[in-house]
Automatic annotation (TrEMBL):
Family matches, as PANTHER family: ALKALINE PHOSPHATASE LIKE PROTEIN, DEDA FAMILY PROTEIN
Pfam family, one: VTT_dom
Name of the protein in its database record: DedA family protein
Keywords: Membrane, Transmembrane, Transmembrane helix
Organism: Parasulfitobacter algicola
Amino acid sequence: MLRRLYDWTISLADHPRALWVLAFVSFIESSVFPIPPDVLMIPMILARPSRAWLIASVALVSSVLGGLLGYAIGAFFYEQIGQPILASLGKADAMEAFNTRFNDFGFWAVLIAGLTPFPYKVITIMAGWTGMPLGTFIITSIIARGGRFFIVAGLLWAFGTPIRDFIERRLGLVFIVFVVLLVGGFAVVKYI
């Protein structure tokens, strides 16, 4: 099933309404859909590099709006919708312990989940469930998702096809390195 969803998502990159499809995929990926928008962004940007920043912007806005849906699921419908989604991702067992610690480092959780391959939908639902301040959630989501989508767009715009293979094979590593550098930068700024 997952392979069919992936193949379907890839085929949408050539559609005349690909930006709308990207917006839809970015929106639902932030709360329920298992395929990240990167799989649409990459072929779309490679096909039309001049639209790289527009494509990244559409993914950003839609993803943050979808994150708000995930937040609402956690805040208002956790038992009915949020818990089954998290259970299907294998995250249900640790929810109580996670709830008590989440808001202490919620900014970092949203930032890291937004930048890395960690399922962002888990964090959006948890942010709502634990009552994370909505402003913190929105600002962090914009920073994290914007960083992720604009880095991919920038790399593809600047380096084209050769970077596609590198990103697709090492996407997780690229974003983990970025997060380490970002957290390290914050630590340096804090202690200097």
